[in-house]
Amino acid sequence: MKNPSPALMPFLEQVSKAAEAFLQSGSQPTFANAREGLAILTRTFVTKACPVAKIIDASIPGPKWDVPVRIYHPNPEQSLPLLLFIHGGGHMAGSIAVYDGIARRLAKASSRITLSVEYRRTPECPYPSGLEDVTQAAKGAFSLLENLGIGHEKKLAIAGDSGGGALAASLSHRASHEPELSIEKQVLIYPSLDYTLSMPSVEELAKGYLLEKEKILWYFDQYFQSSENRKAASPLFMEIPQAFPQTLLVTAGYCPLKDEGKAYTERLKQAGIFTMHEEFGDMIHAFLNLEDLVPEACDRFYHLAGAFLKDKASQMIP
Fold this sequence. Notes:
Elements: H1 9-24, H2 31-45, E1 54-60, E2 67-73, E3 80-86, H3 100-110, E4 113-117, H4 129-147, E5 152-161, H5 163-175, E6 185-189, H6 200-204, H7 213-223, E7 246-254, H8 258-270, E8 275-284, H9 295-309
Parallel strand pairs: 3-4, 3-5, 5-6, 6-7, 7-8
Antiparallel strand pairs: 1-2, 2-4
Helix pairs in contact: 3-9, 4-5
């Protein structure tokens, strides 16, 4: 097997040494460590300035709780369609603040009003809390924009990376049973789609590429705390309805989740859903959080996602 991009190798070596030292110390992973680690990593490597014309912090009310969101409007003088962004982090880490730079770039690339969702995370709030929050956000997003006096087109797309990709795909499946929800497109970025971890790449890329099998299992054990049916909760195994969002699915060549992404792509295509798959062959999981190391790959992704979300198919190949 070839190696990932040379730009990533010093970083991966550093991560490997740190992980070995952590194990030798006898320490155990904690959710606080996971959150701090993703925040530091993203803050260190996503530093490119990306001004957005208007940013508003707000919340979407619900029957039991309010869901915080951050609104990014790339052009307040225009009524634009909506993109709901669901951050990654294994259902445990990540936040609106941590993913601010990525949400900014998505808003600019897509020319969409982008709502980044602060959903509840595990272990304090296990499955299905986060999914309930993103569902509430999707249902209430247009009403929020109207209440804030923000002109918009009533078109909804969703996007998510890693665990956020799992929530995005799950939301798309839910939408077929929710008359209040109509999702036209989804962008799934190295998504987690199989909570049973049944695909070959989970074993083939189990160690050494940032996201490792043991860490994934730990995340899932924190997420599912009541003996839930993990297969039934996995988008990979869910029934695909006739009315389903057009899909752009991105995988990374050195990500243990890549095979489930490919399998999901094939299922969607076989069901007659417009689906595009793009593999970034020399990248690892979470490469968008490592933008300063691999700027060309990140630029390529934002170009691809922006063209897909703007219906500019002719521009999808840089």
